Amino acid sequence: MTSTLHRETVENRVFQASYLALLVFMLLPLFVVVVTSFSQAGRLAFPPESYSLAWYGEFFESTRWLRAFTNSILIGVGTALLASFLGVTGAFGQELDTDDSLGAILQPLVLIPLLIPPVVLGITLLMYFSEVGLRGSYASIILAHTLWATPLVYFVMRSVFSRFDWQQLDAAHDLGAGPVRSFVHVVLPNVKHGILVGALLAFIISLQEFVMALFLSTPSTTTIPVLAWTQIRQALDPMVSVVSTFLILISLGAIVIAAIATNLKWLSKQLS
Amino acid sequence: MSEITLHDLEKQYGETTAVEDVSVEIRDGELLCLLGPSGSGKSTTLRMIAGLETPTSGTISIEADDVTDQPAYERNTSTVFQDWALFPHKSVLENVAFGLKMRGMSKDDRQKRARSMLERVQMGGYGDDDPTNLSGGQKQRVALARSLAVNPDVLLLDEPLSNLDKRLREDMQIELREIHEDLEETFVHVTHDQDEAFTLADRIGIMNEGELVQVGDPDEVYENPKNRFIEAFLGDTNFVDAVVTRTSSDAVHVDTELGTELVLPTDGEPDVDEGTGLTLSLRPEILSIDGETGRPEAAGKQPVATDGSAHNAVTGTVENVIYRGSTVRYSVSINGSSMFAERTDASTGAHASGDDIRLEWDGEDVLAFRDDGTRVTL
Fold first, then answer.
1. Distance between CA atoms of A196 and A157, rounded to whole angstroms?
2. B-chain residues within 8 Å CB-CB of A185?
3. Is B323 inside a domain boundary?
4. How many CB atoms lie within 10 A of CB A136?
5. Residues of B in contact with A181 (CB under 8 A)
6. What positions does the domain ABC transporter occupy (chain B) (predicted)?
7. Looking at B201, B231, B261, which one is the last position of a domain?
């Protein structure tokens, strides 16, 4: 019996294969980075001639790298907190605004920072922060990253709030909960996963951001991407790969946490 | 438990007026149903009493206190919502205890009260359940328990039964009625379902296009409607176009589209002039078929034939016979227009399509409305 493949099946297989090829092609550089981080030699080459954890040891002994690492985490957490606060309250306020006149102004306004080239934003912010005396502070970089992260949190929250049953807020008010208590007891428990996802997104944005950090950081507030760039200009050694591997791992970790947080409830419903 | 006064209440959304000139005194301990078609402003009125909407103008008082500017969370009112709005992240017991928690009651006390409220609505065994797993009827009971738990001055019900199927809805109406009689609290119930309103209400407020058209006892609004809208909205009726041909000191004579002249007896001087166009309403229960009484409501009345002055009758042809279980409905063609009549006993004296049929009624039972919908005093 001859098995003939249906046109649809063939098309699906071709599509899947092409998609997989594209995915591999795009992820390959990451694979190269991770592999070269285990190199023993002092120069960046693929594939490495021999493997060791030498450069990982080097990283943990380097006060400069550890400092940059701490800075990045600190700024990332600060950005996540501030962007979440702004994004959540902005989206929440817009939901409460019945005639949507606020949204007509807010929505495009929130998007502006994403549309301005980071170089322009970096220089402008540098001048601005010098004026107000924030130059060289953590706050300056956190504020800059927040400009980028807030729109993303805001749009995540818009979608989260659109799935929220707003009659619950009426019910909470009706039962005697004021604005703060109804938010804490009724709105927050329903949208906390969305807020976590938004915050992690903001954290990753901050961790990866390079251009604005380059303008705004000083030696004491250098972030990982900025230090990596300065190092590469001096010597192209596997340390860059080590640092990149860490960044990839942190981002992956954040995505896993977000995936678990959003699907945990779904998962528990499936299991019960 | 308390008296609520709405005074000249008005709500506008931009250019649209949702509620206009609503004034009513809701009596202590009564169950008032706001009845009207969708978009008539009944839910908006209810939400203004709850404090969930702010009136554009007018005032709301609960027991002489003006609460117009009080937000919902400061008013001691409680609402059962159409979709019940249970908190999905809280257990059934936590849902019922929420209002008590917000009022600062200790955990032991509020759980005890929440349990007893759940018992009251026959949901005693469900305290630890996830509300999202409950059926519609169960959710409805939990929402009722949650609202009653806070011992509100007034319980507001925003079509909470409309998402239940017919049988369950009817059971819940009886139960709600019992709970109301038991608690003797003031209830305001919004519905678009007239059967529900007649089952539940002490008084019915009929709303149309944002206005409260008439408030009264159920039999009063049904038998003595203020305008044509109410007559058409409540129950079934035959509207017959007519023109006044002659008036006397105790009767109005009209020429109708049925091809016959009818006499409408009046108590005093009629308040219509000759030549005025009228719409007459002939409810099926006032029509007797071939001399027999129709619905049982008409059975206690004097035999129509003996009442000479007010007696009216027309003859037509049966066009359609619709069997409706407890009644049979005849669609009758009279002089080119169509009317319907009903007989209660489906098994006897049946007419078939094409038969001649004679409809009789007492002119006293006919209501008349002007072209603008207002009622003519007869």
1. 10
2. 98
3. yes
4. 17
5. 102
6. 4-234
7. B231
